[in-house]
Amino acid sequence: MSNDLSLTIAGIQFKNPVIAASGTFGYGREYSEVIDISQLGGICSKGLTLEPRAGNTGRRILETSCGLMNSIGLENPGIPYFIEYELPKMMALGPVVIANLSGSTLKTYVDGARLLNKTDVDMIELNISCPNVKAGGMAWGLDPKSASIVTRAVRKVTDKPLIVKLSPNALSLVLVARAVVAAGADALSLVNTFQGFALDISTGQPVFENITAGFSGPAIKPLALRMVRDVITGVPQCTVTRRNREGSINLTEIRKRKKKKFVPVIGLGGIACWQDAAEFLLTGATAIQLGTAIFSNPNVISDVILGLEGFSQKKNLCPQRM
Question: Which of 134, 221, 236, 317 could join 281 via S-S bond, C-beta 3.0 to 4.6 A?
Fold first, then answer.
């Protein structure tokens, strides 16, 4: 069996299913002197907003015994700057380029999407974990209705393939996933960071000025994997056609899937080795994103790709080939 890991997501060809997650890889070139960037399947930009943002004040990073807490606050130079100065350099790196779009109001999301739609960026990843400032600060992705509203609004102004990145903090992630798929998402990525809290025992005060912070790293992998499975099994458009015990394909299932748009799932959360990545792919994810693990070991990218190439000789990892 070939160890070719190439695949297609929403019409975009990837050389392999390994993507650098938003917020962990800058714009790609920051790691160019450390690793071979071209080996990646794709790169998600750091979170982009219409306007420049300075990010949060106070402490931003806290390493824990089993992960990482961050309160960066979407520091970025703004989408116009990104388009003019960063995007051309990203496009020259080789992997698929995915712009991670964030916002605080519906208008900023829509205006940002309009600008990105005029560029050569390959895909947009819509981050709906951002606070909706007109709804008391509750994240867009916590409620199916608000998640649908922002997804539908962005879908109307861009013909770029649209990935919607889901928050694990939603009360019902499956309902949110169904809502954004119905609103026009071409793919889903999940999960974003969990909300955590840390206390400075020397002062008795919260470590972060924002009180809570995003938690990522190996500790969340079992939770993320369960959520990926929940969405794949709970959203008909995300369900992967599987082989039967004899290895043949169930034609009835294929006919059913052809009647509906297939929405692939990109799994992320705590992946630190190729075995972790294989778990997500065998659960039904079409691709995976690497994030926190890159900070401590940039070579984890090549380790995961090589590991999956070897493993693919024994297992078929890409749903498109099933």
Answer: 317
